[in-house]
Design a protein that fits this description.
Blueprint: E1 5-8, E2 15-20, H1 21-30, E3 38-43, E4 48-57, E5 61-66, E6 70-71, E7 80-85, H2 91-101, E8 106-111, H3 123-140, E9 148-154, H4 155-163, E10 168-172, E11 178-179, H5 180-183, E12 193-197, H6 205-213, E13 217-220, H7 228-243
Parallel strand pairs: 1-3, 7-8, 7-12, 8-9, 10-12, 10-13, 11-13
Antiparallel strand pairs: 2-5, 3-4, 4-5, 4-6
Helix pairs in contact: 2-3, 2-7
Length: 248
Amino acid sequence: MKRPLRVFLGPLSAGEARLEGAPFHYVVHVHRLRPGDELVAFDPETRLEARARLTQVGRRHAVCSVAAPGPARLVSPLSVTLVQCVGKGEKPDRVVRDATALGAARIVLATSSRTVVQLDARTETRQSRWQRIARDAARQSQRGDVPMVEGPVPIRQALEDAAGQGGLRLCLEAHAAVSVDEALRGWQPQAPLVVLVGPEGGLTDAELRLAEEAEFRLTRLGPFILRTETAATAILGAVAARAGPSGG
């Protein structure tokens, strides 16, 4: 049986609700729903979702009837923060999308010595874009919550912030003596975990020292050099596999 379409609607409450902008376009123009069709409205900020039925479709908005909201069926069980040094082009978008689908609770985009993209003038716009991408990824993956996306911030600031959070901290380094599998032994999925992934070209020696001073353990994923966005997806996949099924 085909699952009802999931649509972001916040703040979520019972009663009539208007769909405008991107949600309206997604429901009416992309999926061509019509009055009488059912959907699932979800608000990842409050971890609520509700059955809804489309009642009216206009030129620029639609109206739906929303049932009483309840807890989201699937939320991430993880307390994982990804600190990702910003890559070129659309790489940060992919990282945010994949990290959301793999259960990250927080995503911090960081700038480092080898970051080649200048972001300062567009920080607010990019941050809004990344949060929207996270929300869309949550919808696509049936996730009922959404990670907080922060940054870009200097890597030193991200490391200092992580040092105050406690828990296990891992920094990916291709030539590290310890593997990710070894580093994760004894870690429990409910426990805090911070993962640091460098940019294209990797972290400098000085940045690796900063990471170690912040009690990050240098770890490797395997014998091959991975692209920065691939490395983030790979380690979060390993973490998600250890966590098992999600639940509300």
